[in-house]
Amino acid sequence: MGSIQENENGRRGGGEEVILGVDGGATSTVCVCVPGDISHPLPILGRAITACTNHNSVGEPEARSMLKQVMLKALSEAGSKVSDVRAICLGVSGVNHPKDEQRLLCWLREIFPSHVKMYVHNDAVVALASGTMGKLKGCVLIAGTGSISYGCTEDGRQARASGAGPVLGDWGSGYGIAALALTAVMKAHDGRGAQTLLTRCILDSLSLSSPDEIIEWTYADPSWARIAALVPIVVSCAEAGDPVAHEILNTAVYELALSVKAVVRKLMLAGEDGKGSFPFVMVGGVLEANGKWDIGQEVINAILQTYAGAYPVRPKVEPAIGAALLALNLMLKEMEA
Amino acid sequence: MGSIQENENGRRGGGEEVILGVDGGATSTVCVCVPGDISHPLPILGRAITACTNHNSVGEPEARSMLKQVMLKALSEAGSKVSDVRAICLGVSGVNHPKDEQRLLCWLREIFPSHVKMYVHNDAVVALASGTMGKLKGCVLIAGTGSISYGCTEDGRQARASGAGPVLGDWGSGYGIAALALTAVMKAHDGRGAQTLLTRCILDSLSLSSPDEIIEWTYADPSWARIAALVPIVVSCAEAGDPVAHEILNTAVYELALSVKAVVRKLMLAGEDGKGSFPFVMVGGVLEANGKWDIGQEVINAILQTYAGAYPVRPKVEPAIGAALLALNLMLKEMEA
């Protein structure tokens, strides 16, 4: 190990081995730089943030350029250099297939020396690790702008559900909830559906005067995050007793619980009798306590009805730290093997 | 009237007054050039076609440039000149608000002399006119790549439903049907839904080997028409007895009928007792006879259950001709007034 130095920010760095953990969701990408040895709590030497790096959304050249930038920025924040990197773990939305993993690994090899350990996963994997201190065991549900369920067993079997983007019906995601709310406003306006408090609240929030103008608003910017940002309005309308908003949130809870149950069943995470215990990690803005109408708590209730042994975990560290912890654990496993 | 001349194609043109009728849908835009006097059947002097000219989809400069090109091409086909144009009727998807109409009218004024009569409508309006020989009375349902219901009364009251694009839940459209089918394949794959024949048929049709690859496929090209092109597969799976495909088509029929009924109710097209008679014009690939599973016939059945006086019309002329007929009718009305 190199000597420990203080950088300008009073942080260690320069010569000491570090690990990069990256979490790339549908809205933003976070990279943290942590020491290459294990300590608890893990000190964060550097942290950088950029926009969405899903290659499906922004294109591969743009995704790579942004991933490179955010990693170099976190390194620079830590006062570290590329040659200090011992391991990298990327958890990026858009990694849906082994060939996506391979492409990213090949690209990382062009930037970092060959001795650097590299791990590439879907962002759901590092979110799971953020709730299990780096262990890949249990099930995670992410519901932010997008949504995905992912699970892993100790012997390495994996499964996922949802996470296929807005065209393919992720109706429990923030985007899905908000799109259903906008649809409800259009339906109330043209006579296909019941009147709803959502109309006034959404029009006010978007500074529009008529539901007709929502059509142009949705086309004006294809960003899902912009649409997902309407979720708090749906929650507050449901809390105010609006039955249409209430129904939309119930649909979201049903869809989110359905995707978790599909993963738990496929991997038999609760054992053969369905009564076994497993961590159920919950990540993302949609699942955070919303006040009276708590989507996360409703999903927990729905899961516990089927799998009483599930124990809900709301991670105390962010998914990027989960990525770093996962890299540490995977390195340890490789050393043990 | 100018003298009638033969152009190179043996068509009349040059100096004779003509009318341009334009139909711009979610997939393509058609312009026809017809004589400025009324005759039956209406001879088509020129016809040109280009891609989607919805300003929401392709941007305003591109939409205008393409509209101008397609009109000039139809004129040139007819051997006519800009100075021969007596009237223009544009029916373009994306015209959802009076300000959309005004913008297009101002732009047309820059291209055509001030004596030219100009009419700008949503494409649903000219589709209605194609089934009523240019009269704005009754209800039209378009279900192609997108879907919309539109109705008009003799005293000029109008209403519409759906037609708000894929974000806003046009589930009866070709895009909507195909998106639900793709979602069903993803749900069957990850354990959220029942197995379905759609999986094999859609993967074969797209030359993909696994449902995971559908995610990348949907992102690769945002064109709705590409997704809507899967509708015949859904129909053939339903005809083969697949319950998932059958359910998707039932949902589409329900949504399409819902939007028609909303318009009929709002305008009281069937009178106060709901038994009055009105034309119900049906346009678009989704509503054309599909074989055993006939979406259009199912929609007719659903409408007739509520409004027995509706008489279904499948237009014998294309919507662009409807636009030209509408221009002729509107001009006549103005002359009478």
UniProtKB/TrEMBL annotation, chains A, B:
Pfam families: BcrAD_BadFG (PF01869). Its EC number is 2.7.1.59. Residues 20-327 form the ATPase BadF/BadG/BcrA/BcrD type domain. Keywords: Kinase, Transferase. It comes from the Eukaryota. One of its GO terms (molecular function) is N-acetylglucosamine kinase activity. Belongs to the eukaryotic-type N-acetylglucosamine kinase family. This is N-acetyl-D-glucosamine kinase. It comes from Lithospermum erythrorhizon (Purple gromwell). The lineage of its organism: Eukaryota, Viridiplantae, Streptophyta, Embryophyta, Tracheophyta.
